Amino acid sequence: MINAWFFAALCLVFLTLCALVRVIPGPTRDDQLVAVNAAVTIAAAAAIALSIYWQSLFVLDSSIALLTICYAGTIAYAHYGKGEGV
Amino acid sequence: MSDPFIDAVIYILFIVSVGFSGIGIIGLLLFPDIRSRLYTAVRATLIGTGAMVLSVIVYAFFVFQSGGGDDYTSLVIHTLVLMCVVIGANLLLYRLIRKRAMSPETCKPSPQNNSTEMK
Q1: Which of A76, B8, B20, B34 could lock onto B48 through a cystine, CB 3.0 to 4.6 A?
Q2: Residue B111 has pLDDT above 70, yes or no
Q3: Structural domain boundaries of chain A?
Q4: A10 near B CB under 8 A
Q5: Sign for the pseudo-dihedral over CA of B99, A64, A62, B7
Q6: A15, A48, A72 member nearest B22 (Cβ)
């Protein structure tokens, strides 16, 4: 059962990397924001599975802190950015 | 884990989580315009993360019932806090980007916005 958590985490990490592929070409800033948002959301699911696999709440706590920082940065960038610039 | 029913439920939730996340990524990579990408990426990845949270809750509930302990209660609370952060940030970002994507300037067809050029 524990290996299933790790396997699910690996799959989600792979999907996170696939989402990051979208960040580089864009082509617009909104596309990059959507891709970062999807990558961070999937990374949250991977962090949950990894925290169960490692039996550690510290992983979950640190991932909550990191996610909050990432989301705050993304929302600030979306709010103060000038629309569809590349 | 020893209960095959609980194991089956958790496996199904894993499949749902990875499947919906994959659907979101496929939509993100293949769809041509920002609105469909936004719609797919936000909703599908949220469903995937929600399925993972649900699997953690099922796991924690089962382990708590069989062995007890406060660790699993705090695990559920931490997981729910993480889910609240994820949902709140996704809704905020969705509204911000959707407002821009629905504006008349960006609704005009332009060759730049037809961005299937993932080469």
Answers
A1: B20
A2: no
A3: 2-80
A4: no
A5: negative
A6: A15
